[in-house]
Amino acid sequence: MSEADSVRILILDNRISIAATALYCYDKILTAEQEVNLIWRRKNSGIVIPAIYATMHICTALYLIITVFVPSNIPCEGVFILNVVVDIAICALYLAWGVASALRVYAIGGLDLVLPSVIMFFSLVPVAANIVRGFHGFTSVYMLMSGHQYNATSLVRMSLPPTNSYVSQTMLASACVFDGAALPVVEIVTRACSTFADALVLIATWRINGGIKKLARQMNVNVSLTSLLLRDGAPTVQERQIAGLNADAT
């Protein structure tokens, strides 16, 4: 892949990030009242669920703000700090998703610990993988000569192609790049384990709700499978709408 193609892919990636940010904000506006009533004002909800919920949204906001709104022409030290913040937010998100998924299966699975433990194990793999990737990137810092540009959150090295109406032609005297995308094996393992953990949650939810649906039908109780899935905590829009951003995260 040429450097010009890399720039075009980066531009497309940034546009997708902007679209995801707009969707996230729109969803938050629509569900703000429900969030306050069901999460923050609900009695006897304990501290675990609000803590998980707050972690997901704080880290999501940090990630999206840095990805979309931070300019590229910032000092190298600033890039380093931002990437540390991004990596911490990513790891916290994976951890929060893993805890939420494990607790969900634990609650609907008769308080059995086996499957939730397996889900939690595979959910922790992306956390470890992103720590490895971040460490590799931070130890691979180097300065580029004039004629190169970097993006604060893409971690992609590139040379600006000839004049292109879709590419900013801002030239920097030097740029700081974190070579964090040089571990394809880590990315593959991260995606595979994350997908497998999500699949286990879906299979467990469908299996349990299928039995409830069958029992309800035998007792002539009309209940939809969709209602059961929502009741038992199928993946929410807010949790999964930024899953497509994992291409940036890993």
From TrEMBL:
<protein>
    <recommendedName>
        <fullName>DUF6533 domain-containing protein</fullName>
    </recommendedName>
</protein>
<keyword id="KW-0472">Membrane</keyword>
<dbReference type="Pfam" id="PF20151">
    <property type="entry name" value="DUF6533"/>
</dbReference>
<feature type="transmembrane region" description="Helical">
    <location>
        <begin position="113"/>
        <end position="135"/>
    </location>
</feature>
<feature type="transmembrane region" description="Helical">
    <location>
        <begin position="47"/>
        <end position="70"/>
    </location>
</feature>
<feature type="domain" description="DUF6533">
    <location>
        <begin position="17"/>
        <end position="59"/>
    </location>
</feature>
<keyword id="KW-1133">Transmembrane helix</keyword>
<dbReference type="InterPro" id="IPR045340">
    <property type="entry name" value="DUF6533"/>
</dbReference>
<keyword id="KW-0812">Transmembrane</keyword>
<feature type="transmembrane region" description="Helical">
    <location>
        <begin position="82"/>
        <end position="107"/>
    </location>
</feature>
